[in-house]
Amino acid sequence: MKRNLLFILFSLSFTALFGGTGPKINFPFNGINFIVNNNTNQPVMQATAPGSVNWAAQVNSGQEFYAFANTLELYQYETTDLPVNFEYDLTIKGELKYQLLGSAAFSSQIVELHINNHTQGSSQRIDFFSYSNAYNSTYTIQSVTLTGTPPAGTDLYTAVSRIVELNLSITQTHYVQPNLNLPVSVTSGNCVDGISNELVISWPLVPYAEDYELEILYVDDYSTDGTPLPQSAIRYDFAENATRIVLKQLFYRLPIVYDRGYVLYRIRPVGRGGPLWDKRIPGPWSGGTVSGTVNNFPAKLYISANWAHTRNTLNWQLTTTFAEDGKRKDV
Q1: Cα 245 from chain centre
Q2: pLDDT tens, the chain, 331 aa long
């Protein structure tokens, strides 16, 4: 069965002035709106994200870079309330029109998507078309072709319309040339969560940063007879045995699981650069030198004997495994 002249419009524009690659923004359109049988109405959907950038005039340069990744998707979803226990074949054909970054002109092409469900053999439950650098897109459906066997008590168009969606999506990438002269700071006043026994380290946003690198270094303050050394007598070196964590957020919660001594920490932003904007460009570290004595380093936390893990009364060992975005497992 085939139905023509069914018109559905997606209008898509997007802006967000972040660094790096942002989240995928979806504009879904439920199958009830476009899988119809003898429906004389012409449903129209318009999805517009707010923004002030003039994308038609935007030109990438050595100082700033934009890119978009786009997809048009047709897919089936299934829930316990809507089981898919019948066969169907669905084909959507339409015209995709889009405006590319730096131009107001529309490009156009015919896109056909196909999904099916078979109770025997393999099924194709998602089909998609990918394109790039479109800041505005419209998709006009020209035909819907649907065949199959409906479940008892309903018609095929109604059954399939409840379990499929079209989706137009856009993902924005934005890089700004790192300004390595910008000062970077990290909280030097200690903020400790007394309930979770964590040191909360935070820092302000840096405009060009795609992510941040946090370095943490522990040094004990034991003298040869076990008494505490003065800060001026304790040397540190971040080039030796420091832990580096790559983060997206502007804070990190550090469990205070240390012996008596000092926890030192510093932060730096990391941007993108190079001719293809594919090189990691680290910014300057927050205050303090890479090595020296503890008294001259600003961002630190002192852990006294009463605060130290197990209060220095038992032998203990901690193993921490880190994953992306600062996720960790402590054993």
Answers
A1: 17
A2: 444 434 444 444 443 444 678 888 888 988 988 887 655 555 445 444 446 788 999 888 888 888 899 999 999 987 777 788 899 999 999 889 999 999 999 999 999 999 999 988 899 999 999 999 999 998 988 889 999 998 888 899 999 999 999 999 999 888 989 998 888 888 767 788 888 889 999 999 998 898 999 999 999 999 999 999 999 999 999 999 899 999 999 999 999 989 899 999 999 999 988 888 889 999 999 999 999 999 999 999 999 988 875 444 445 454 555 455 555 455 4
Tokens of 123: 């099924």
Find the angle CA(268)-CA(273)-CA(278) to the nearest 5 degrees: 105
Long-range contacts of 109-117 (CB under 8 A, 24+ apart): 110/142, 111/72, 111/139, 113/72, 113/73, 113/74, 114/74, 114/89, 114/90, 115/74, 115/75, 115/76, 115/90, 115/164, 116/87, 116/88, 116/89, 116/90, 117/76, 117/84, 117/86, 117/87, 117/88, 117/148
Q: With contact defined as beta carbons under 8 Å apart, do 218 and 189 qualify? A: no
The token pair at 26 is 């979806």
Determine the residue type at 50.
P
Residue 179 and residue 208 in contact, taking contact as beta carbons nearer than 8 Å: yes
Decide if 100 contacts 69 (C-beta within 8 A).
no
Cα separation, 161 vs 155, in Å, equals: 10
Residue 179, CB-side half-sphere exposure with 13 Å CA sphere: 9
Enter the pTM of the model: 0.68
The number of helix segments (H) and strand segments (E) in the chain equals 1, 21
Cα–Cα dist 55/53, whole Å: 6
